[in-house]
Amino acid sequence: MNHLIRHADFPSRHILPRHVDVWLPPGYEDAPARRYPVIYMHDGQNLFLPELAFTGVDWGVDEAILALMQQEEGFAGAIVVGVWNTAHRVREYMPQQPAAGAVLARFRQQTGAAPQSDAYLRFLVGEVKSFIDATYRTQPGPDHTFVMGSSMGGLISLYALIAYPDVFGGAGCLSTHWPIGGHALAAKMVGMLPPPGSHRLYFDYGTAGLDAEYAPFQSRVDDLLAAAGWTHGQEWLTLKFDGAEHNEAAWRTRLPIPIRFLFGY
């Protein structure tokens, strides 16, 4: 069985309620003793259904998981949790602790408010993940728990791993929107990462549209990761996609790559 379950208006003590979608892989209900890894993904309305997606093209996360199940013997699939965004998306996805000084001042000037990502992550970890682990047959440890997003969702995915390294074992950051905090934010975030050896990081970017701005920032991040001892291709992977734009269609095309990398295939 392969289906999507909606937990509508999921409540929170920390932030606004929003929908949380849960995709269960085929075979979930037929194997009651089997437990599954989980990928937590931001911008949940863009993941599964084209009629809900921002551009009319969804990420095709279910198709990517199904393809990996067919390609890798022994991989029984994963649960995917899609957390919808709200009108406070930029505030909730802007890394809060690394944003200081000029970075914070510029963000306040641009948005008229302060980042709210610490509250968002308390919601994600303390409320959503707790509910998912209690409701579904998950493998709850960090080796089987991943977080992923694109653009600002890439930033909050990396920040989630920084803030909760004992919860998330890997982060997939597609078209990470580094320019909102510049080189200062990027360097601060790399400096806050746990030591290499126990986590996986995936980054990528295109060369068209908004993604055309990302290369110098990602190059700096890559240099800092290498200097900190992260091994490219094993613990961390950065890929460039020539001609790729900043949209769901582009992320859908390359989504199988970060999924394979996070799962170690």
Might you state the CATH topology name? Rossmann fold
- Percent helix range: 25-40%
CATH homologous superfamily name? Alpha/Beta hydrolase fold, catalytic domain
Per the principal axes of the C-alpha atoms, what is the gross shape? globular
Order of helices and strands: EEEHEHHHEHEHEHEHH
**Quaternary state, please?**
single chain
Given as residue ranges, the uncertain stretches (5+ residues, pLDDT < 50) are none
Strand order of the largest sheet: 1-2-4-3-5-6-7-8
Number of helices: 9
- How far do the termini sit from each other? 24 Å
Proportion of beta-strand residues: 15-25%
Which radius of gyration do the C-alpha atoms yield? 17 Å
Kindly state the mean pLDDT as a whole number?
96
Global structural class: alpha/beta
Tell me about this structure:
This protein is of the alpha/beta class and 265 residues long. It has helices at residues 61-71, 89-93, 101-111, 117-135, 152-163, 182-191, 215-227, 248-254, 256-263; strands at residues 3-10, 18-24, 38-41, 79-83, 145-150, 170-174, 200-206, 236-241. Helix 5 links the parallel strand 5 and strand 6 (170-174). Helix 6 (182-191) packs parallel to helix 7 (215-227). The protein is globular.
